[in-house]
Amino acid sequence: MAIEKQKVAIIGSGNCAIAKIAGYNAARHSDSFERQVNMYVYQEKNLTDIINEEHTNKKYLPNVQLPENVVAISNVEEAARDATLLIFVLPHQFILNVCKSLKGNISPKAHAISMIKGVDVRDNKISIFADVIQEALGIPCAALSGANIANEAVARDKFSETTVGYRPNQRELALSYVKLFDTNNFRVGMIDDVAGVSLCGALKNVVAIGAGFCDGLGWGDNAKAAIMRIGLMEMKKFSLEFFQNVKPETFTETSAGFGGRNRKCAEAFVKTGKPFSVLEAELLNGQKLQGTETAREVYQYLSSRNRVDAYPLFRTIYKISFEGMPPAQLTSDL
Amino acid sequence: MAIEKQKVAIIGSGNCAIAKIAGYNAARHSDSFERQVNMYVYQEKNLTDIINEEHTNKKYLPNVQLPENVVAISNVEEAARDATLLIFVLPHQFILNVCKSLKGNISPKAHAISMIKGVDVRDNKISIFADVIQEALGIPCAALSGANIANEAVARDKFSETTVGYRPNQRELALSYVKLFDTNNFRVGMIDDVAGVSLCGALKNVVAIGAGFCDGLGWGDNAKAAIMRIGLMEMKKFSLEFFQNVKPETFTETSAGFGGRNRKCAEAFVKTGKPFSVLEAELLNGQKLQGTETAREVYQYLSSRNRVDAYPLFRTIYKISFEGMPPAQLTSDL
User: Fold this and answer.
1) Where is the active site (chains A, B) (predicted)?
2) Do B64 and B33 meet the contact criterion of CB atoms below 8 Å apart?
């Protein structure tokens, strides 16, 4: 079955690297995609005008030039109206409202891919955002793990990898996501495991905090490798325990990527002794660090299930991050 | 079936950390081990006297105090005569001669564990050293991956992990190896896969060279994570292709540990532009770097099988290390 030409809309403007890649690939794969890529941009002052005239988003990646075929639109329904391929890169607190606006106003052929970070923990339940979107819009929703690492490929021209997790029987759609995102430096794989890919993307940020503690303590490569291996085992165990149809190999064979600012901030946490809230203000321009946020949500969820003690590394990372446990006790309970 | 009290002999003096750990555990687990641990030391000047009087090996870990129950013996047959548990930590070029001396002179209850680094490539054949020893002595031989990382636990009091790979039906022996090596900072796991553990231990050094190239290039955490993931997949593929009865989970669930001096020397290779032979002289006191040696052996073996192109990362690491390929091409062929 051939896929019809896709019309792409990016819902959210927080990830310029993905916008750049999608614009670039939509233009060069003209057999598969419409040239114009819409990007819904929450209107602050005249941000859409600036993006459409200067082709750059000063708020996020100010040095990245966006392709001119990426067009900013401040009305989400208008941005999505004719699109068949919706990319969700919103901060998670806006998802439900945006989906409410979109419901009934999208193409019957529309399908989506979520790049939303973290997990949704509410009322002692845990969900991935791809499921939240799929349910809210009634369309298939896949997931891309680690969209933030696209920044390394785009802004700094560095090699990185990520994975599309897709629904069973949606392989054709997955191939079109891979085609839309894969570049020479940003390698995109795929596996039919939406939950596994989403959870890998969220939980690896927790483990990266542990790896950063290791670095801050000056414990060396072998200790860090041990933390990452134990972390990967807890990630897999957690996902298999609390989600259906997760594939174990998603955690051991696809690209996980423990790195970036979670690790760096955790290193600074140990070295400076400053709380994460201060480091977020100083190092991240006030943005929340994903790894510690997810560590807190996972800890709360496990507490509600009486399962905290089955995940000693997750527990320790939470307690060091938020309850004053000394970082040097990182491996004491493992 | 209860295991009788084991008498331990360490064949080789190059790993003081393992000697320290074995001495310490033999003394505290007096239900399982004879107190005295013999250590065969190749006699240079009066090295055995120095070790037995000062309880330190100035040649290797000069700051490590050996337990006084570790007794250096310069005659290998004498060191091994009454032993039931033989630990092989020799440089690989001495194994066959030492086994020749031991053959017929060891206890009928003797069994062995190999900590010898690398793989044995000869006449277009590849073997692990645990098989070489098992065949030469006619006794079961297990393997410990990454004995060198014991140095971090002992000399610098840092957390690290390793794995015992044991033969099918030799679980009781494996438990005694774990008991002999496991400490609070040096965690020892086990799996019934001698070949997998040995190959993991050898090939991870090759991948660590690639990780070090990444660091030297300043490519960041995500690129390094990608190299390690791709490397792990090539390690697993190689082992399953060329060895019998390897368990895939050995590569994804047991402790691998990509680090240490292989990574650091590879970083220096990129940053200084000096060849590995010079770096070995400058940074390793003339010792050979395991990762590049294994990279060369693996490349030669794959060449003899016409399978080089099936392992693009192994090929690239070899070519950067020895054939002048620019490090920045690390990911070009992946």
Assistant:
1) 204 (proton acceptor)
2) no
Return the closest-CA partner of residue B197 out of B261, B132, B119.
B119
> Is B160 within 8 Å of A223 when comparing Cβ atoms?
yes
Amino acid type, B263: R
The one-letter amino acid at B80: A
Contacts of A223 in chain B (CB under 8 A): 152, 158-160
* CB-side neighbour CA atoms (13 Å) of B153: 26
Distances (CA, A) of A302 to A52, A245, A256: 45, 20, 22
Instruction: Give how far A219 is from chain B: nearest CA, Å.
Output: 6
| DSSP sequence for B160-206 | EEEEEE--TT-HHHHHHHHHHH--SSEEEEEES-HHHHHHHHHHHHH
Give the distance from residue B290's alpha carbon to the nearest chain A alpha carbon, in angstroms.
Answer: 16
Residue A226 and residue B156: Cβ atoms within 8 Å? no
Give CA–CA dist A177/A129, Å, rounded. Answer: 17
DSSP 8-class letter at A61: -
pLDDT tier for residue B55 given thresholds of 50, 70 and 90: confident
* Residue A275: partners with Cβ closer than 8 Å, 6 or more residues away: A269
Nearest to B152 among A156, A222, A229 (CB): A222
Residues of B with CB under 8 A from a CB of A: 146, 149, 152, 156, 158-161, 185, 187, 219-226, 229, 233, 252-260, 263, 330-331, 334
Q: What is the DSSP string of A249-307?
A: HHHHHS-----HHHHHHHHHHHHH---HHHHHHHHSTTPPPHHHHHHHHHHHHHHHTT-
Smallest Cβ distance to B159: which of A146, A223, A258?
A223
Band the pLDDT of A234: cuts 50, 70, 90.
very high
Contact predicate B188/B30, CB 8 Å: no
Which residue do the tokens 């009634």 mark? A138
CA atoms within 13 A on the CB side of A24: 15
Is residue A56 a contact partner of residue A66, using CB atoms and an 8 Å limit?
A: yes
In this structure, what token pair is assigned to residue B12?
Answer: 């080789």
Residue of B142, B181, B186, B148 whose CA lies nearest to B165: B142
Q: Return d(Cα B109, Cα B203) in angstroms, integer.
A: 32
Contact B181, B22 (CB under 8 A): yes
Instruction: Tell me the per-residue pLDDT of A134-187, one tens digit each, with 9 for 90 and over.
Output: 999 999 999 998 666 777 777 777 888 889 999 999 999 999 999 999 998 899
Residue with tokens 């790195």: A259
Model pLDDT, residue B144 = 94
Residues 6+ apart with CB under 8 A from B155: B17, B61, B63, B64
Residue B77 token pair: 């047959």
Testing the interface with B: which of A152, A156, A159, A262 to mutate, by most B Cβ within 10 A? A159
Candidate from B158, B223, B229 with C-beta closest to A223: B158
A140: nearest Cα among A77, A68, A86: A86
Tokens of A96: 């439900």
Q: Is the Cα torsion angle A308, A310, A314, A319 positive or negative in sign?
A: positive
Cα A265 to Cα A276: distance, rounded to the nearest angstrom: 8
pTM for the structure as a whole: 0.82
What does the pLDDT look like over A249-306, one tens digit per residue? Answer: 888 877 654 556 788 888 889 988 899 989 988 888 777 888 898 899 999 999 999 9
From the CA of B170, how many Å to the nearest CA of chain A?
A: 26
Model ipTM? 0.74
